[in-house]
Model the fold of this input.
Amino acid sequence: MRETVIEVFADVACPFTHVGLKSFVARRAELRRHDVILRVRAWPLEIVNGQPLDPGDIAEEIVALHQLLGSKLFAGFSEESFPATSLPALALASAAYRRDLVTGEQVSLELRDLLFERGVGIADTDVLQRVAAQHSIDVDVADQQRVLEEYGEGVDRGVVGSPHFFTPAGGFFCPALDVSRDADGRLHVEADNAGFERFLATCFRDGD
Done:
């Protein structure tokens, strides 16, 4: 069966992306559609926002996700281990995709699991070197530059935020969740089940 590649621009440190990717992978397993592969591209929020992500803000988002999802995800999240930059991890993911799509997806998911489920600091050089060695990946300067190039491509393609998926039918921003703030700045996160099903239908429409 011919492979279908679903692109997604995202930051490795974005909790909403973690939910979206986990949900996608779970449905793919249910459908046994392993011919549909994720190509997770760099959308570094520290560049988008002009400053590093705040661990306290991420913790607020995770609290909201816990209220929505229960304790299914983010079991090991720690503000203390939250990375000051996601650029080295994004470069590692880019290097993994340079090897092949399957390795790239595996590393992209593993980095998020390390951060959000195991509380591991993914900006730590030893951690990144260990992941690279496990997958026989060499990261070079070109991979670091590729992160910036992917960000530029995302800008050109109209990426709204993290995660922004591109399927054969078009773009979908954060299709699993409806995220907003009220007039007082309070964060609200709700499941967008209908939107997620519409998104999935465009990813797996060639299968039975």
User: Anything to note?
Assistant: Helices lie at 15-31, 45-48, 55-69, 87-99, 101-116, 125-134, 141-156, 193-203. Residues 114 and 120 are 5 Å apart (CA to CA). The chain has one domain: 4-203.
